[in-house]
Specification:
The chain has one domain (about 10-65). Helices cover about 25% and strands about 35% of the residues. It contains 1 helix and 4 strands, in the order ββαββ. A 4-stranded antiparallel sheet has the order 1-2-4-3, with helices on one face.
């Protein structure tokens, strides 16, 4: 079926500061989806984020976490 920009299959915390690893089986456009998700994360967490994207035969992985290390 259609999921707009993509459907999230799983979401896992990667740190204690709101960082998240998302698995999406398919995406409309990785840069657009990563940008929208990163902007939403920044709005929710009230701080700047970094985003990493990778893909394989299993789908896409987007990791979003704080741009700066928090103590």
């Amino acid at each position: 079926g259609k999921f707009g920009l993509g459907g999230i299959d799983s979401a896992v915390a990667i740190d204690e500061h709101g960082g998240v690893k998302l698995h999406l089986p398919s995406l409309f456009h990785p840069a657009i989806v990563a940008g929208i998700l990163t902007a939403a994360w920044e709005r929710a967490e009230a701080r700047h984020a970094k985003c990493e994207w990778s893909c394989s035969q299993n789908g896409h992985i987007i990791q979003i976490s704080s741009l700066h290390e928090l103590a």
